[in-house]
Amino acid sequence: MGITVGSGIVRSPLFLVVLLAVAGCTETAAPRPDGGSNGTSIVLADRDEPTTLNPLLGYGAQGVSKIYDGLVEHRQDGSLKPQLAADLPEPAADGLSWTVKLRGDVKFTDGSTFGAEDVVATYTAALQNPVKERFGTLKGVEQVDPSTVRFTLTQTQAAFPHLLVLGILPSEQANPNGQPIGTGPYKVTEWKKGDRLLLDANDGYFDGAPKVKKLTVVFVTDDNQRASRMQAGEFDGTVLPPKIATQFAGKSGLTVQYHRSADYRAVRLPAAHPVTGNPAIRLALNFAANRQGMIDTLLEGKGTIAYTPVPDALAEEFDPTAKFRFDKTEAIRQLDAGGWVPGADGIRVREGVPARFTLMYPLGDDLRADLATAFAADAKAVGVDVQLAGLSWEAIRPRMAQDALLYGEGSPFDPDLMLYDLRGQGSPAADAALENGRKLIDPAQRAVAYKLFQQAYVAAPSMAVLVFPEHAYVMRDSWNGYQPVVDPNSYGALAWGPWWNLDKWEPK
């Protein structure tokens, strides 16, 4: 919330200076790797630069954004704890609303005071912006009193509190063009788009001023370039594919950390395509995929076989019996039964349509490229021709409805958060299980629903889910405070991963 006089917002001259810096108009010397002489700065390298720093447009959707706080946040074990909320959200008896009490001791980094109007403004704006896709059950939000808000839903959703990690903006910045002002442990000082993002500690942070005072995130898309520059001493840490990270094992002053993940890699098979939408093709590809071979050769053993999108980190909902065996004979049997007969060139054909499709993967992502190549070889062995296309995300997005994609997604927090959008891509039984998983309140009943989903999924898969790769990180051993977590799909310097709790780190 901003301090108001009439209809205007009073801002200090210092605030205006910060805005100019955020606009990227200045040249600021970046902190040196190793934290300088006292470990109070850190330089990290990320593969992907955010397209935005605005929560309404998708930034920090799974929390841990460094700049913002949500009403709640996830602990190391994935459970929820209050953050800007004073207590955990309380559901109404019918499950159609949630009431949240707010802290009264929080300020935004522009000096204005956090209050209920900021929550109402942020979530009202969320329903009108791209992030609304995550809030399909949210009907509205209202201020009950200066320290209380109430969320009203269109249907029950047991997982709804997990969505309240959305970063809260000051009410006057709650729009797509708002400045990156939050209550979080760090504040933006400069964003040189295409190069780096500079953050300074929020020394007035209500949860304790960070000991690491400066964070620089350098954006380097290519995995091999990041590794080379890490080797040269430019960075204090980075994320790398496991196969590349192994070269840093045993290096003096560095550690290699591997995180379990709920971040599955899958071949997304569009339903509208005459080949990838065919049930026999989908089943055959799942039997043909040598998942263990992919883990052994491409991940250096650092990963878990995946058959469905549900990770074993969700212990109550995970069904270990929902799986496909690696069986080329069964894959061929499925293709034969589906009317896909071998052609003269070895590629199967059905009613004049060859079993051929394009599989896209993002350029610069070595792991996805390697998985796509291995999957294509497995498919070729049973008569399905997969043509690979390494493309930019700008080129990939318009083609996702028609061409297959080496896809990444996943969350260890609640199955509803990552599975509900799979409706309409598989069987009616799978869709019904997802609907029940969303609306049921009792945890045991929800667990049954998600196990039913997994059984329905393996009977009629909509993707070829391949692996849950471990995320590999190389880090300079100059700080205390590292705590391992199970990573979601959002990980790196500005999200989950080893630096998720950077504001609690201390120089050694």
From TrEMBL:
<dbReference type="InterPro" id="IPR039424">
    <property type="entry name" value="SBP_5"/>
</dbReference>
<feature type="signal peptide">
    <location>
        <begin position="1"/>
        <end position="23"/>
    </location>
</feature>
<feature type="domain" description="Solute-binding protein family 5">
    <location>
        <begin position="80"/>
        <end position="404"/>
    </location>
</feature>
<dbReference type="GO" id="GO:1904680">
    <property type="term" value="F:peptide transmembrane transporter activity"/>
</dbReference>
<dbReference type="GO" id="GO:0043190">
    <property type="term" value="C:ATP-binding cassette (ABC) transporter complex"/>
</dbReference>
<dbReference type="GO" id="GO:0042597">
    <property type="term" value="C:periplasmic space"/>
</dbReference>
<comment type="similarity">
    <text>Belongs to the bacterial solute-binding protein 5 family.</text>
</comment>
<dbReference type="Pfam" id="PF00496">
    <property type="entry name" value="SBP_bac_5"/>
</dbReference>
<dbReference type="InterPro" id="IPR030678">
    <property type="entry name" value="Peptide/Ni-bd"/>
</dbReference>
<protein>
    <submittedName>
        <fullName>ABC transporter substrate-binding protein</fullName>
    </submittedName>
</protein>
<dbReference type="GO" id="GO:0015833">
    <property type="term" value="P:peptide transport"/>
</dbReference>
<keyword id="KW-0732">Signal</keyword>
<keyword id="KW-0813">Transport</keyword>
<dbReference type="InterPro" id="IPR000914">
    <property type="entry name" value="SBP_5_dom"/>
</dbReference>
